[in-house]
Design a protein that fits this description.
alpha/beta; Nucleotidyltransferase, domain 5; Aminopeptidase; Alpha-Beta Plaits; 3 domains; five-stranded mixed β-sheet; 13 helices; 31% helix
Amino acid sequence: MPIVKGSNEKLEEIIYSEPLERAQPPKNGRFNRLLKLFLLTVLLVVGALAASAGLPLGKPAGTAETNKQPQKNWSWFSTFSVFNPLKFLTDDSSQKLRGEERGRVNILLLGIGGKNHDGGLLTDTIMLASLDTIGKKVALISIPRDLSVPIEGMGWRKINSINAYAEKANPGSGGQAVSQAVSHLFNLPVDYYLTVDFTGFAKIIDELGGVKVRVENTLDDYRYPILGEEDNPNFNARWEHLHVDAGEQKMSGELALKFARSRHALGSEGSDFARARRQQLIMEAVKEQLLSLNVLFKPRLIGSIVEAYQEHLSTNLSILEMVRLWNMFKDIKKEDVLNKVIDNGAEGLLTDVIGDDGAYLLVPKSGDFSQIEYLIKNIFASAPPEDLPQVEKVTKEEAAIEVRNGTWRGGLANRWAVDLEKFGFRVLYTGNASQRNFQKTVIYDLTGGNKAESLALLKEKTGANIAYGLPEWLKDDLAKSAAAKKLPREADFVVVLGEEANR
């Protein structure tokens, strides 16, 4: 398991401990039963998790300046211990999950197009599922495929290309290569990966007899690519018209896959947010169909699913590890599933740039990955019990804040934004103040004292002074950020952090 020591500036210093061992086949007749349970568990776990969160975002509208990040000499394409657990299975019933002893298991969920798809080895979906084994909570952190990361000898490339590069260099190593990349970038152990081929998922839907999907908006996509016609000299012959009416629709695997992957629909359905929601609807429908059919009691159906799916899934989870995972989290409540998309929105940690080769990229606003690392490590943090009554009052007042760094200490605003969110504050914007000489943190109250409970808690947690008028320089800062980021609403409080906030 790769463990990274040091800050983001020292990610090359890697220590490999607990190397992945090749799982061994069972020595008795339990193979088929375990195999079937493994596949069913994969479907239910992935379905249950993905149905609770939006999937990763792609290219949003807008562009920015050229990406000029320095290149670092990282390599994720070493010789990996790669195996297919559908062929090599462990039979150690006492085996604990990796990460269970530290109370947190991290699983990287990857979705690829697969064979016969243009760019079939690129990861279309990248999601880190972090499971709190003590508090029985799950955090789903969506990582955008356009995130720029360093690859040895190639400079900064999109993270979704790592799987393809690794598979070309060493077939079968893609899942672990992406896992190590995420581990290195965010300085956290990634214990497992699960890569699913979309084509295989379509076959599963057909084996289930199709699924009923509650389509929220009519979808019209006149540029859905026709498989195999990508290079047709007749440009218009490359596309088909995909139309799906609103309401409950029975979908085959092929239609469900098209519905989930459509990128060029008219109106609001053409956004990446809408696409993520459609993928979520498909996952919900699959989960409901699995449960309604009582699949556990239909071994012939499970056998068909196994046959259809085994060529389209790769993971380093053994069967019994997956069973243990399922038993630990099968009863998790929806409110205990936390969803976070790492994006370039006004409240996000990324910004969009254009690379030297003209490619659209997303890069950290702070200049490194430390703030994303902080977010992931603290995602299960919550307000102490004694603060909960005050948090309820803040939530009721719907207090929104902007957090600005009034010092030269990088990343201070994003770190405080993560901490203040757990107290019920909605963070509209994080960034640097134009004035960077603050020693004491200042809260600028824009409500005229109308949200006293929120102000009191904000002052308590930051130790800040309170001001009721805005200086001209801050008025200019607010106007510029509002125009550039199109904030959803005006802030109630602006927090400008001083040196004392660097704790």
